[in-house]
Amino acid sequence: MNTTTIRRPLFALAAVLLASSLAACGSNARARTGYIPRSVKMTEVNDMTQEWRGGARIADFASVTVAEVSTPNTGAYGDISEEKLAEVRTALQKALSEELAQLKPSGAAGRTLVVRAAITAIKPNNPLLNVAPQTQILKRGYGYASCEIYATDGATGDVVAAFMQTADTQRLSTEKYSDIGTAERAAKDWAKSFRELVAR
Predict the structure, then answer these.
(1) Rounded to two decimals, what is the model's pTM?
(2) How many distinct helices (H) and strands (E) make up the chain?
């Protein structure tokens, strides 16, 4: 048996193992925590996203308010300090406020859409493992961040819209060089997606 004959199956095996490893690292979707009321029947959009939209429209409301963002799940944020968790909460609060300001509600005076959001889990990135290409192959330094966001009619408490998503660290980005980089980037994406959901 010559060298070429031996190498081919070895290369094929290596490719299969690599593909399996990458696939395993690429799906970090988190289960629903209960922050969104259980009565809301979420619909799966894709492996990482679920949403629900009720009958009320933004035109039915006179204003939109964003409640203080929370990180309610003790032990779900790795070794991230409280100071950095506060930074992520602020990032999502700011992003939601800016995105939802674009909606310009024009409904009956006194009717308010109340938005509540929680960052339900963060696996921090490990920047030291994300510097060299060879250490990124298995994405061992990559993390993720998850959220649950919903809006209610301030007068009745009825849920108007709900959204949850897990965001994985993106390979072609600078977010992987910060432990909370994925969560900070995701905050902007979540806010935009929620604004689009509410605007339907």
Answers:
(1) 0.83
(2) 4, 6
- What pLDDT was estimated at residue 23? 38
Alpha-carbon Rg for the chain in angstroms: 21
Write the DSSP assignment of 104-158 as a string of letters: ---SSTT-EEEEEEEEEEEE---GGGGSSHHHHTT-TT--EEEEEEEEEETTT--
In angstroms, the CA 158 to CA 182 distance is 32
**Whether the predicted pLDDT of 159 surpasses 90:** yes
- 181-199 vs 82-100: helix axis angle to the nearest 10? 30
85-133 confidence digits (pLDDT tens): 999 999 999 999 999 999 988 876 779 999 999 999 999 998 777 776 6
Assigned fold of 3-199: Double Stranded RNA Binding Domain (3.30.160)
- Give CA–CA dist 29/144, Å, rounded: 9
Residues 6+ apart with CB under 8 A from 121: 30, 33, 73, 76, 77, 144, 145, 146, 166
